[in-house]
Amino acid sequence: MSNTATGPVSSATQLLSALSLDGRNSAEGRQINSSALEFLLPELVNALVSTTLRTKQISERIALGLDAQEDASDKHSPSTEKGQEYNATTIPGNPSMGSGWLDLPEDEELVEQVCVKLEMVGFRVGKRIAERFSPLSRRLTDTLDIVKFICKDVWTLLFNRQVDNLKTNHRGVYVLQDNKFKWFLRMSGNNGGAAAARRAQPYIWLPCGIIRGILDSFGTNTVVIAETLGLPQCTFQIKVVSEEQMVARA
Amino acid sequence: MSTTYYFAIVGTNDSPLYEAEFGAHQDESKYLNQFILHAALDLVDDAQFMTNACYLKTVDRYNDWNVSAYVTPSNTRLMLLHENKMEETIRSFFVDAHELYLKTMLNPFYEPNTPIQSQTFDSKINGLAKKYLL
Amino acid sequence: MAAKQYKAIGEEAWKNNVEKVNAELFIFTYGSLVVQLVKDFEDYGAVNKQLDKMGYNIGVRLIDDILARTGIDKCADFHTTAEVVAKVGFRVFLNIAPAIANWSADAKEFSLILEDNPLNDFCELPPKAVQEGLWYSNVLCGVIRGALEMMQMQTEVWFVHDVLRGDDVSEIRVKLVKILDEEVPVGDE
C-alpha cells in the first residue's frame, strides 16, 4: 500500500504514534489472554438465543391475545425467567464439562434471527475496529486497499495471523480464506462433520458483520457471507453492492 | 477582541452530529453559520479527491469567513468557520478534536451518525477551543 | 508471604503460559453485546442478570484452565481464595490484579478494587443506564461466582461501585455463603 501523503507534523505525530498502523503491532497497547474471547463467544451466542427466544415467546403471547406483561414481570424472578428455559435444557448435568459450544435449538427460524443479531453485533464491532485502527496518514479509498487492510492489519491485530489467501475477480467480489480460523480451533476438536458445522453456523456471522462494518466505515456497502468446508477452515466472500442494489434489496 | 468560531462535525449522511460556537456569542448567526458550512460540503468533497491527507486546510470563503475542513478516515467531516488564517493552529485543533471524536465513536453506546450528546465530549471540545483558538 | 506467592504465580503464568492478543476485539465485542442485550431486554435489571448468568457459565469452564496453567490445586481458606482470584485469575485472563480490601470481621466477605478494568475502556454510560442501575461489567461477578463454585464455594458476588457510574473506584464484593464440600478445610478464625 503506497503512502503518497506527507506525514502530518507537530501534535499530529503524537496521535499517529498512538493510533496509526505504521509501526504498530499487536504487542503494543493493552493485551489480554486470547482465551478470554473464546470463553465469551459461546455465551454471546447462548445469550442471544435466549433473548431471541424470549422475544418470540412474548410476541406469541400477544398473538394469542394473552397478556405480554405477564412474561415481562417474570424476568424479575430468576426462577421463572423465560431465557433460562433454553439454558436449562441445554446444559444437562455438570455445566463445567465441554467447551461451552452448545447445540442450537431445532427452530431454524429462531437460529436465523440469532444469526442476524450476531451479524449486527459484529457490524458494530467492525465500525469501531475501523475507527480505532485505520491509518491516519492516508485515507483508504480504494476497496482493494480496504480489503488488504482487513486481511493483513486487522487479522494480525485480532488473530495474531494474516488470512491465508485473498482472491478477487476485480469486479467487486473478494474472497478471503483462513485455513485455521481461530474461533473454530476449539470447536473442531470435538466431533467434526455436519453437527460441528451446524454448531459453527452462528459464529461465522460475527466475523462477517465485523468485515462488513469495517468496509461500511470507509463508505463501501457490501454483503459478506462465509462458509466452512470443514472446521477450522473458513472462507469469507465480500460482495460490493451499489446504492441502487441496496435500495432494491430493501 | 471578539473573535468568533463555529465548529461542526458532519456525519456521512451530511447531517450535523455536533455543533459549537466559541468566543463572542451571536444567536442570530447560528443559521447563517450552518448555511455557510453546508454550502461548503461540496467543496470538501472536491478537496478530498485531490489529496488523501486528512487535513484539507481552507476549502471555502464567505465574506470575512474562512471554512477549514478535516476528513476522518471514515469520512466524517470536521469543519471550522473562522475569520483569521492560522493553518497550523487549526490543524492542531482538528487533530485533537478528531481524537475526542474517535473516543466517542468507540463508546459501545454511541450509534454512528447520530448526534453526540455526551457532556464530557462537549466540555473537552470547549477546552480545545480555549487551548488553541481563543 | 502467601500473597507474594500467588502474585508470582499469576505473573509467571501470564508471562510464559498465555497466548496474548490485543484486548480491543474483546472489549468491542463485549460492549456490542451489552448494547444488544439492552435493546433486547429494554430493562437494565434483566441485562445485569443476563450478564451475571453468562459470567457464571464462563467461570465454571474457565477455572479448569486457570488451574491447569498455574498448578494451583485448592484454596486452604477464604483469604487464599481472595488472593487466587485477584492475583492469579484476573492476571491470567485480563492482565490486571485488583487490590483486596474491606474484609468483614468474620472473614467471609471481601472486596476487589479494580483500578483498571479493561471492559470499561472507551465506555461512557448513557444517563438512563446509570439511573436505572446497569452494572456494565457484571459479567465479572458471574465469572467469580462460577469459578468459586467449582472450587466448592458457594458465593454471592456483586458490584458495589463502578467508575462508569461516577463512583471513585470500581468495587466488587464477594461473600462466602457456604462450603459445598465438607472435605475442603475452612478458614475459621
From TrEMBL, chain A:
GO CC annotations on file: cis-Golgi network; trans-Golgi network; TRAPP complex
Location of the region described as Disordered in the Swiss-Prot/TrEMBL record: 69-95
Polar residues: compositionally biased ranges: 86-95
InterPro entries: NO_sig/Golgi_transp_ligand-bd, TRAPP_component, TRAPPC6/Trs33
GO biological process, one term: endoplasmic reticulum to Golgi vesicle-mediated transport
Basic and acidic residues: compositionally biased ranges: 72-84
Family matches, as Pfam families: TRAPP
Leader peptide range in chain numbering: none
Domain of life: Eukaryota
Similarity comment: Belongs to the TRAPP small subunits family. BET3 subfamily.
The protein, known as: Transport protein particle component
Source organism of the structure: Coemansia asiatica
UniProtKB/TrEMBL annotation, chain B:
Swiss-Prot/TrEMBL GO biological process terms: endoplasmic reticulum to Golgi vesicle-mediated transport
Pfam families, per database record: Sedlin_N
GO cellular component: cytoplasm
Coiled coil: none
Domain of life: Eukaryota
Family annotation (InterPro entries): Longin-like_dom_sf, Sedlin
SUPFAM superfamilies: SNARE-like (SSF64356)
Name the record gives this protein: TRAPP subunit
The species this protein was found in: Coemansia asiatica
Gene: TRS20
TrEMBL record, chain C:
GO biological process annotation, one example: Golgi vesicle transport
Entry GO terms, CC: endoplasmic reticulum; Golgi apparatus; TRAPP complex
Keyword annotations of the record: Endoplasmic reticulum, ER-Golgi transport, Golgi apparatus, Transport
Major subcellular site: endoplasmic reticulum
Cell location: Endoplasmic reticulum; Golgi apparatus, cis-Golgi network
Keyword Transport: yes
InterPro entries: Bet3, NO_sig/Golgi_transp_ligand-bd, TRAPP_component
Pfam families: TRAPP
Source taxon at top rank: Eukaryota
Matches recorded under PANTHER family: TRAFFICKING PROTEIN PARTICLE COMPLEX SUBUNIT 3
Family: Belongs to the TRAPP small subunits family. BET3 subfamily.
The protein's name in its UniProt record: Trafficking protein particle complex subunit BET3
Organism, as annotated: Coemansia asiatica
Lineage, opening ranks: Eukaryota, Fungi, Fungi incertae sedis, Zoopagomycota, Kickxellomycotina
